[in-house]
Design brief:
154 residues; alpha+beta; 6-stranded antiparallel β-sheet; 3 helices; 20% helix
Length: 154
Amino acid sequence: MSQPAGSAAVPDIPNPFSIRIYWEDTDAGGVVFYANYLKFFERARTEWLRAAGVEQQALRDTTGAIFIVAEVQMRYLAPAKLDDLITVSVQVVEQGAASMALVQEAWRGDTLLAQGRIRIGCVRAETLKPRRIPAQVLQAIGATSSSTNDRTPA
């Protein structure tokens, strides 16, 4: 499991993606609106794939495959506020033929703000029916036929 919120150790963040918090990200209380973490996690996943050489539009055009979010579990531990610079991680913790589970975390320095477990599925763009994750995606992200990790939300 990850470092507890407020721990002194700087975390080792897998596949980091930085996001600045703007007015539009906050609610009436001046903190990041809870649903915006899902947007931050989505951006981090997209950039993680892009950094691995997987452009999602090109993947759709060449294979007909797209990814959809099938399930989300979230924990909110500390608030992010206006002008904060947060770092969002992406880590594959489980991988099957047509889906994978990822643990994503949002950090401000050494403070864990939010943690989620997101299951994404690979589907045919035209029918939205499940299909195998294309081999080039698995190769690009270094996935294996099955993997597990202890970085799951409690």
